[in-house]
TrEMBL record:
Keywords: Cell membrane, Membrane, Transmembrane, Transmembrane helix. NCBIfam families: PRK07234.1-4. This is Cation:proton antiporter. NDH-1 shuttles electrons from NAD(P)H, via FMN and iron-sulfur (Fe-S) centers, to quinones in the respiratory chain. The immediate electron acceptor for the enzyme in this species is believed to be plastoquinone. Couples the redox reaction to proton translocation (for every two electrons transferred, four hydrogen ions are translocated across the cytoplasmic membrane), and thus conserves the redox energy in a proton gradient. InterPro entries: CPA3_Na-H_Antiporter_D, ND/Mrp_TM. The keyword Transmembrane applies. Residues 113-373 form the NADH:quinone oxidoreductase/Mrp antiporter transmembrane domain. GO terms for cellular component: plasma membrane.
């Protein structure tokens, strides 16, 4: 199994370099990488036996493959496949596919790692590949956004590296298992880096501008798969160390409310989706035992939404409300929005019910409130007018390619199939509760939210504020760790 895993990890990197040298074969080489990842991820989900591989004993470099890894790997494979289909007929160079494959392989490496040094190397590679993909169109806007992303990412990884060094100093090993032996400042620094890379709470406020301004397929990749790179190690650590789980859960709940709060009053559709991602990663870390399934359902739906919104004539909701979009595009938007809202027969329903079942007390009440807020947010997407007669490429619409339909149909079909992962969610009580939340959320959006045209200030997202927010999170983390672990 060691040889198969190492070969599988290195395959996308080899294919990525080959794509640069053989650009005419780049799309087909990407297909090979995606199929191999999908097969490996599904095997990890189905297998009942977790696998642990120790590669460098003295440094504690360890790979751990289990069902949790499987769900994240499958998410990465399906989102990359949809992005590949979308780009198939577009004039993308071999360099684009090289970066896409490097990004894909580095994400896989994160999802099977159980040590801090492997996570560091993979996160740095992901940061560079993401930077190059965001800047790919080479407009002044995307170059500025990509440099902003690279700077924030580098600062986050600097903090993370200092924390990883402190873990090694305490254990002579980079293994996750030695985390609690490290000083509190080491744990805080590691968490700070992961929170920022994962777009969690206020340290994730770099995310709305980055995801909204990138090209359509890059936005889908970032929000559907890349943001999970920072989340996966947090989930793994939360499952390993029960002492740390309440604090991570608290930040997850805060992130869920922050994202929903901003998204409720957002008028730009791409920014709304990006802000929703901050909220949804909060759900993922708040319920770590369901994190894999929740990440899969969110990744599929969010990639569908970004690919579709990129083909709408406008990003402003007010202007979209004054026009009509083709019914087929509206159908894609609605199906993905329903899944994130937790509508039955889609993967989001089982993921949300399962995640909320893991919570008790005030945490349960809080996340049920955040779930209602999510329904209100995505009602704004569902209520966009549409017409059966409106054609793609007609007035007020953009033309879409066959690759777009292949990509979104793959994602939507996967949402339907993944609905079977948690069938115990289909009880009468759960169905009635879900339908009540959805009807209440739609009513609140239609009768109340439309009456308020409030634009929340974006001052916290300014470049000069982002480092300050990271520092605030560091103080909160250190205080939280001191309160949870020292007493």
């Amino acid at each position: 199994m060691t040889e198969i895993t190492i070969t599988w990890i290195l395959l996308p990197l080899f294919l990525g370099m080959s794509s640069y040298l053989l650009p005419k074969l780049a799309r087909y080489l990407t297909v090979i990488a995606v199929v191999s990842s999908l097969a490996y991820g599904l095997q990890a989900i189905v297998s009942q036996t977790p696998i642990t591989l120790e590669l460098l004993d003295h440094f504690g470099v360890i790979l751990s493959i289990d069902g949790l890894s499987g769900f994240f790997i499958v998410t990465n494979a399906l989102v990359t496949a949809a992005v590949l289909a979308y780009c198939w007929v577009l004039p993308k160079s071999g360099f684009f596919y090289t970066q896409l494959l490097i990004l894909h392989g580095s994400l896989n490496a994160i999802f099977i790692s159980a040590d801090f040094v492997t996570v560091y190397v993979a996160l740095e590679t992901i940061g560079i590949a993401s930077f190059l993909l965001i800047a790919y169109s080479r407009t002044e806007r995307t170059i500025w956004v990509s440099l902003r992303y690279l700077f924030v990412s580098s600062v986050a990884m600097l903090f993370y590296l200092m924390g990883a060094v402190l873990v090694y100093q305490a254990n002579h090993s980079f293994s996750f298992s030695g985390l609690l032996n490290a000083p509190l400042e080491g744990i805080a620094l590691i968490f700070l880096g992961l929170f920022t890379k994962g777009g969690l709470f206020i340290s994730g406020l770099w995310l709305p501008l980055t995801h909204a301004e990138a090209e359509t397929p890059v936005s889908a990749m970032l929000s559907g798969a890349v943001v999970k790179a920072g989340i996966f190690p947090l989930v793994r650590l939360s499952l390993m160390f029960g002492e740390l789980s309440p604090m991570i859960q608290l930040f997850g709940i805060a992130s869920a409310f922050l994202g929903v709060g901003y998204a409720l009053f957002e008028s730009d559709l791409k920014r709304l989706l990006a802000l929703s991602t901050i909220s949804q990663v909060g759900f993922i870390v708040a319920s770590p035992t369901v994190a894999g399934f929740y990440a899969l359902s969110h990744g599929l739906a969010k990639a569908s939404l970004f690919l579709t919104v990129g083909n709408l004539p406008e990003r402003q909701l007010a202007k979209l409300q004054a026009t009509v979009i083709p019914a087929r595009l509206w159908g894609v938007l609605t199906m993905a929005a329903l899944s994130i809202s937790g509508f039955p027969l889609l993967a989001g329903y089982g993921a949300k019910v399962w995640a909320l079942e893991q919570l008790t007390g005030w945490q349960s009440w809080a996340m049920n409130g955040a779930a209602l807020g999510t329904v209100v947010v995505f009602a704004k997407v569902i209520f966009i007018p549409f017409a059966l007669g409106a054609s793609q490429g007609g007035p007020g619409t953009k033309g879409v390619t066959g690759g777009f339909w292949i990509g979104v149909l793959l994602l939507l079909l996967s949402l339907v199939i993944a609905n079977g992962v948690y069938l115990p969610a289909y009880t009468l009580a759960n169905l009635l509760k879900t339908l009540a939340v959805i009807v209440g959320g739609w009513g609140a959006s239609f009768f109340l939210l439309r009456q308020f045209q409030v634009q929340l200030p974006r001052v916290l997202e300014y470049f000069q504020q982002l480092i300050g927010l990271i520092s605030v999170i560091l103080v909160l983390l250190f205080g939280g760790l001191w309160a949870w672990l020292a007493f």
